[in-house]
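Chain and backbone:
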Amino acid sequence: MNSRSSRTWLFILFSLALFAGTSGAIRSLVSYASDWENNNASQVLMIPLISGTLIFFSRKRIFKQVQYDVVPGALLMIAGGALMAFGKTTNLQLNEGDLLAFSVFSILLVWWGGFLLFYGRAAFKTAAFALMFLIFCMPIPSPLMDRAVTVLQHASADVAYVVLKLTGMPIYRDGVIFSLPNMVVEVAPECSGIRSGISLLILTLLTGHVALRTWPKKLALVLAAIPILIFKNGLRISTLSFLAVHVDQRILTSRLHREGGIPFFIVGLLLMYPILRYLIHSELQPPDPPRAIQQEVSL
C-alpha cells in the first residue's frame, strides 16, 4: 500500500470513528431535518451529497499536493472537541434547532481539522468551498432565522401590496394585514418564503462557484438573488390573494397555497438567468488597456 492510499484509509477510519462517536447527534439532526415543519433545516440532508460531489469532481486538483499538517489540524480538532465537551457538560438553554447547530458545528470543526491534518493546507485551501459548504448542514440558528423571516415577511408584503394596487383592487394595508373585498389577508411568517430563500441561496452559491471565476462576480450573483426572492414571493402572495377575491376564498387554505411555490420559484430562476449570463459574459471581456497605452495608440 503506497503512502497516498494509506493516508486516504487513515482519513476514512478517522471519519468513521468521528461519525460513530457522534451518531446520536447525527441521528437527531436527520430526524429534525426530516420534519417538514422545521424551516431552518430543510436543506440539511442534501448538503453532504453536494459537498462530496464537489470534492469528487475536483479531486485531482484538491489532492495534487498533499502532506500531513499536524499542528493546525490538531488545533482545529482540539477546538471542536472542546466545544463538544462544553456542550455535553453544560446545560445550554437552547431550543432543539440551536442545540443541534452547536453540536454540528463542533463536529465539523473536528472533521475539518482531520482533513487539514491528513491532507495539508494546500488541499484544504483548494477544497475550501466544498468544505465550508458543509456549514449548511447546521440548522440555521434561531436569531438569524427569525430576523431573516421578519425581513422577508415585511418586504414580501410591500411587493404584494404594490402588485395588488396595480391590479386596481381596493386594498387597505395595516402592516402585514391586507383588507381586501370581503376578506382580510395576513402575510404571516410562514408566508415569508424562507424555505425557497434558503434553496435559492444554496443554488446561487453553487452556480457562482461553478460558472464564475472572481469573488466580486460570485458575490454579485448572491446579492442579486435577494430582491428576486422578495419579488417572486410578493408575486405569489398577490396572485393567491387576487384569486381568492375573484375566484374562491378557499384558495388560501388549499394545496395551491401550501404547496404552490414551485412555479414562482421557477419564475425566480428565470429572472436570475440573464444576471448570471451577464456576469459570465463580463468575465470573458478583455480588460481595458491602461490609459497611457490608449493615448499612445491614438497618436
Summary: The first helix runs from residue 3 to 21. The chain is about 70% helix and 5% strand. The mean pLDDT is 88.
